[in-house]
Amino acid sequence: MTTRLLLISDTHIPGRARRLPDAVLREADAADLIVHAGDWVAASVLDDLREHGDVLGVYGNNDGDDLRGLLPEIARREIDGVRVAVVHETGQKLRREERMDAAFPDTDLLVFGHSHIPWDTMTPRGMRLLNPGSPTDRRRQPDHTLMTVDVADGGIRSVKLHSL
């Protein structure tokens, strides 16, 4: 059996959008787990996503005390044998893979945000690093984005970047 993950980050609501885009909510309804890598800004976004499914999330640098009281800085969960960690920031892109191998030695999939830049790489140890970009604040990117990931039997079966 496959588990579908929806990956989003940096929603910045209400600063960048008044609400989550319909495409995010449709993907949330289709997912088994919603993963948010921080910078929600409004705690109501967490409430909204919880109406659509199970949420695994962390707070980001733009999140206030309300979200920091509800969410951890780093979240971890094993999903179908895949050890997942979520964090908002990983620092600069230079040597990111090596630094994350050292920081997350017992992780198969690290989901992060902060840059609003979609990212999909593999570390030297074999950990997958994914940043879904932002569904509401594309900054210098051509599109608003999110990712879906299918995991099963201890492995990542597929990763897809979706442009909204």
UniProtKB/TrEMBL annotation:
Molecular functions (GO terms): hydrolase activity; metal ion binding
InterPro entries linked to this entry: Calcineurin-like_PHP_lpxH, Metallo-depent_PP-like, Phosphodiesterase_MJ0936/Vps29
EC assignment: 3.1.4.-
Keyword terms: Metal-binding
Pfam families in the record: Metallophos_2
Domain Calcineurin-like phosphoesterase: start-end pairs: 4-153
Required cofactor(s): a divalent metal cation
Recorded family membership: Belongs to the metallophosphoesterase superfamily. YfcE family.
Name of the protein described by the UniProt record: Phosphoesterase
